Every structure is written in C-alpha cells, then in structure tokens.
Amino acid sequence: MDPKKRFYRHFQDSIAILQDQIDQLESVGAVAGERQEAIDHVLAGIAKLQNEVADAADETPSYDRRQYSETIKSLQDSLNETIAKVTPKSRFQFKRSAPSANHVDMGAPENDPRLNPGSFSRNPHAPHPELFNAVAEDDDKVGDLPAHSNLKDYNHELSMPGPSGIRKPSFSMAKHIGISNQSGLHIILPESAARATSSGSLTDLKDCIVDMSVPTAQGRPFPGLALKNISNSLIVAGRVSGPVHITGITDSILVVTARQVRIHECRNVDIYLHCGSHPIIEDCTGMRFAPLPHCYMTEADGAVENQWDQVDDFKWLKAGHSPNWTTLSQHQVLPEDIWTHVVPGQPGASVEETLRKVGIPRR
Q: Which of the four CATH numbers 1.10.260.40, 1.20.58.1250, 3.40.50.2000, 3.90.580.10 does domain 3-86 have?
C-alpha cells in the first residue's frame, strides 16, 4: 500500500479509537483514580498521534496536514468538553494556541502537548487516590464512612490463620471488594461475592493467588477494576464490564476479561486476555499476551471480538513493533488443565507450589 494511504488509514483508525475512549469517560468511575487514568491515556494517545503527524510531515501533502490538524483539534475540543462535564476543575486540558490563517504546525513548540505543563503527564505531587479496604456498608455513600456504619474488615479476616490454606471470604454483605496488603495467600471469591457490584481493587499483594472469576461469571461483572503494586502473584480477575487499570505489577500472571485494559509501569507480566478494544501499555517491559483460557469464557464473551493481540504501546513512537511486548507461543501458553485443576487449589498444595506449577517466578 502507498505510504500516504497507509498513514491515512492509521490516522483514521487512531481517531476512531480515541473518540470512543472519550465517549466512554462519563461511564468510568472516579474510584481509585480510574477516570483520571482514562483521561491520562486519551491525552497520551492524542500526543502520540500528534508526534506521528509531525514525523510524517515531509511525506504528507499540505492539504492532508491541514486536515489532520483540524481533526486533532476537534478531538481535543471533544475531550475538553467531556472533561469539563465530568471533572469541571480538571487540570488535564490542552492549551489551545491562537488560530492560524493557514494550518496548525503540529511540530511547533506552542502546539506540542509535551511542552504544556500538566497536559498529559502524571503529577507526582498530586495526592494519591484513596483505596478502600473491603468492607460491608449500611450507608450507600462512598468516601468517609459514618460512625454508625456496620463495617467488617475482610483484609483483617484474611490475615487470620485458618484450617485451610485457601481463604474464601464471603463478601456477602459487601458493596465494594478491595483486597490489600496480603502476602502468601490463596484467595477464592465464592458466588456470594456477586452482590458486590461496585468497582473493585487489589493492591499491595505479594506471592498470592486471587481468583475472582466465580462471582463475576455467575453474577454481574465489576463496573471497573484497579490492580496495583502486585508482585510474584497469579490474579484471575474475572469479568469487568468497564476498564481495568493495571499499575506496578511485576513477575506475575493476570487473567482478565474487560472492555478496556490500561497497563502502566509493569514488568515481566503474562496477561491472558479477552478485551473489546486495543489493550494499552505505557512504561512497561517484558509483557506477554495470550487469549483468555477457554474455561473462563462465557457466552457473552464469545459475542465480542477479542483484540488481545492488538496492543498499543504509548511510549513506543517509532515505526515497527514495540519491543516491550510480545505474544505467548503455543508451547508457552499454560494448558487448560492447569487452569481447571491446579489454579483452584489441590489438597496439601502450598501457595508456593501452585505458583511454581503455573510458572511463577518466570524462568
């Protein structure tokens, strides 16, 4: 294909993906910083597309450059309007330059979002979003819990020694599932956890196995899910109808079904994935992708095209395939009996033994 036509198709596809992400911002929950993460990714995607337009300027006719510039400006306007609607005081907006009589030079400093402070980079001094422990609430309000709320600290319960190596917290009264600060545990959420219909979070886990697939398959999927600061672990995250934000995961295996997956600052992670859009990685290395194991598929998943291998690396702006990710070969993919017989736990098997059988740590 002619390079100009190929770039044009790439540009149109990128615009369509970014516009779809903008359209979905209103449905993304603000819990655990999910909405801001989504905004960050859209901003980074626009910046990447601007860089690509600037890089292709020498081989692009002036008319096409003008059309590209106007399209990106329209996309920026759409994003700013949506940000104003969902977060009126957001600092993450593009700085608009004065209109030009001809066209916008995407390579000019005043139009380069990388030079506009606060445009799409994360603010290291911003307050860290609060992640809530797994609790059962009588009050519908999320945030500061009233003194009279009936709370049950599931993370404390999980830490208590039990007769079995596998922990099965009921979460039957919980509205939010958040497992944090655990080490060396095998946790399986039973069907009773299906009542927890708000976004979930798994944070600060080490040497753990967490299986959330049963309640999300039998009940309703999570609206959103945040995975953060997890190492040397196996996470079967179940089904998520909205976005999954994955940050700071190392030397682990993830199993995820979601509409959107955004992955930051991860290293040496295998992801078995069913995703309705392009997975996005940023500041990651050693990422390997594979399709969702058959045993976790549902009838609803089969109706959605799986784009597990259409990964976009927002930090790889050069031509060609990003070296930061690859796909698992047929002999590298875990066999189905591992998922059906080993991952659920075997009599007398320790967490360490089970992790070793699934290939953690990676050899």
A: 1.20.58.1250
